[in-house]
Amino acid sequence: DIVMTQSPDSLAVSLGDQVTVNCKSSSTVVSTANNKIHLAWYQVKEGQPPKLLLYWATDRPFGVPDRFSATASGTDFTLTISRLEAEDAALYYCQQYYGTPTFGQGTKVEIK
Amino acid sequence: QVRLEQSGPQVKEPGASVKLSCQTSGYNFLKWPIYWVRRAPGQGPEWLGWIVPETGVALYADAQRDRLALTTDTSTSTSFMELRGLTSADSARYYCARGAGANFWCDNWGPGTQVTVSS
Questions:
Q1: What is the largest CA-CA distance in chain A?
Q2: Least CB–CB distance from A49: residue in B62, B100, B111
Q3: Do B61 and A100 touch (CB under 8 A)?
Q4: Is there a contact between B46 and A103 if contact means CB atoms under 8 Å apart?
Q5: Chain B contact for A104, CB < 8 A?
Q6: Which residues make Cβ contacts (< 8 Å) with residue B82, sequence separation at least 6?
Q7: How confident is the model at residue B103 (pLDDT cuts 50, 70, 90)?
């Protein structure tokens, strides 16, 4: 299985600031068939199910604010939350779907 | 509006089995895989398997292959997950979710079912 490793485990950020969450895959998650990056990001708030934030590494579903964005380079992936809002306090997970799906261990974002 | 509604919390003794349900609505149940994912406190989510309702084809995580069964009832747009031989390590919140495809992301999730394994 492809192992997904996130960093940091947690961070505290002030409202309005930018947040960066990192995710690294143990092997490639880029398909040679479609040249797409098989990576998704989810947000999980206390007591709620996961919410899809991004798929194909950088594509946002309808309704996800544009302050959520991501970049990818090789096996390194970054989720960026610009202009942090109080409602963004949550756990964030990356997930690869190149192989059988696996998730990172999560990054907790708190408001300072 | 896509909805996934899951059955209520379960408390089981070690060695028992549990069967959870996930009733869907608001979309063509046959066409989208149903994923089952669990999350234990302090851990990342763990994908357990998915099933394509139209064909019944299922893929299971290697770690669960021998004791997990995914099924569907197309007449009620419901998916079921049965896990046998429970241990305390199976205590977690179990989610069903609609997959964007086989081995893809999940775009809609159920609220989850808490399963507690304790003697």
A1: 44
A2: B111
A3: yes
A4: yes
A5: yes
A6: B17, B18, B19, B20, B68, B69, B70, B71
A7: confident
